[in-house]
Amino acid sequence: MRPPAVWLCSGEWLRWQVNYRFSVPRSDWSYRLETLDLAYGPADAVVFLGIPTHRVDERAVAMTDRRAAAANGHVFHLVDVFTGRPFSEVRVAEFAHALNLCAADLSPGLTPAVVSTGLRYLVMPIESGLEHARITRPDFEELLATVGAEFVYVVDVAAMEGRHWNNDGRTEDVATGSGAGTVAAYLVRNRRVPANRPFVLRQGRFAGRPSEITLTGEGTAEDIRSIRVAGQVVAVGHGRLDAVPIGPA
Predict the structure, then answer these.
(1) Which distant-in-sequence residues (6+ apart) come within 8 Å of 21 by Cβ?
(2) In angstroms, rounded to a whole number, what is the distance separating the alpha carbons of residues 139 and 95?
(3) First to last CA, the chain
C-alpha cells in the first residue's frame, strides 16, 4: 500500500524518501537511499536544506524511531503471494543440491515455493542441515530465474531459523526483512504458524551476528492480506549533507 497523495500549496515543499537493498552478480549487498525534494512555485535550491512542509517516508525502518519500529514493524503488502508452477521432485532435488542439501534435510509434506512481497524469493523448507547450507553453483542466479525467483531463503521450519545470501553465495545476510516476510506468508499459507499471531524467526547465527525477526501474517491462511516484520535495529552509520551539490556528480 502506497502513502496517500499530498497536496502542496504555493511556497510549500515535500521530501519523499525510500530505501532499497539489492545485489548484482559477484558483488556484495548494496544499500541505496533515494530522496526527492519537490517545491510548489519558484524556489531556490537552498530551501531544500531546511525543514520540509510535508514528508513522505517509505523507508523500511525509520532509524529515528527504533523503539516504534521494533514494536510495530514494517508492513509488506503481498504481491502475487505464490507465483509459478508447483515444483517437481526433479526440480526440488536440483535446488537442494545447489544449496548443499540432501533429500533427508527437506521438510516432509512441504515443497519449495516462490513467494513475493515485492521481491520474489524461493522459500526452501528444511528440517535439518541448516548449518551445511550454502550456494554451490556459480550460475545460481540464472537457476533462480528459471522458476521466476530473484533470491532464495532457506528456512528450518522445525527450529524456526533461516539463512540468506547474495546470489553468488559470498555474503550472508544477518537479518533479511523482505525474505523473512515471504517465509511468514509461506508458513501461514501452509498452516505451520497461525495467522494474526506473532512468531520469531532467527537468522544470522552462522554469520556471527544472531538476530531475531518478529513476524505476523495478517488475514487467514487462504487470504493473507499483509505481513508485519519487526525487530530491534542498530544504527551503524550516518551522514550529513552540508551543501547542495552543483554541477556533475
Answers:
(1) 29, 30, 31, 32, 178
(2) 12
(3) 33
DSSP 8-state secondary structure symbol assigned to residue 108: T
CA-only gyration radius of the chain, Å: 20
All residues at 6 or more sequence positions from 169 whose CB lies less than 8 Å from its CB, including other chains: 134, 135, 136, 140
Strand order in 54-57's β-sheet?
Answer: 30-39, 13-22, 54-57
The answer to whether the beta carbons of residues 29 and 64 sit under 8 Å apart is no
- Predicted confidence at residue 61, as pLDDT, reads 45
The type of residue at 156 is: D
Cell of 213: 525477526
Q: Summarize pLDDT for 179-193 with one digit per residue, the tens.
A: 999 999 999 999 999
* Burial class (CB within 10 angstroms; exposed 0-12, middle 13-18, buried 19+) of 67: exposed
**pLDDT tens digits, one per residue of 90-113:** 999 999 999 999 999 999 999 999
Phi/psi for 200 (5° steps) reads -110, 130
Instruction: Provide the H-helix boundaries in 80-132.
Output: 89-98
Backbone angles phi, psi at 21, to 5 degrees: -130, 130
Q: What is the pTM of this model?
A: 0.70
- Phi, then psi, of 16 in degrees rounded to 5: -115, 130
pLDDT tens per residue, range 123-172:
999 999 999 999 999 999 999 999 989 999 999 999 999 999 999 999 99
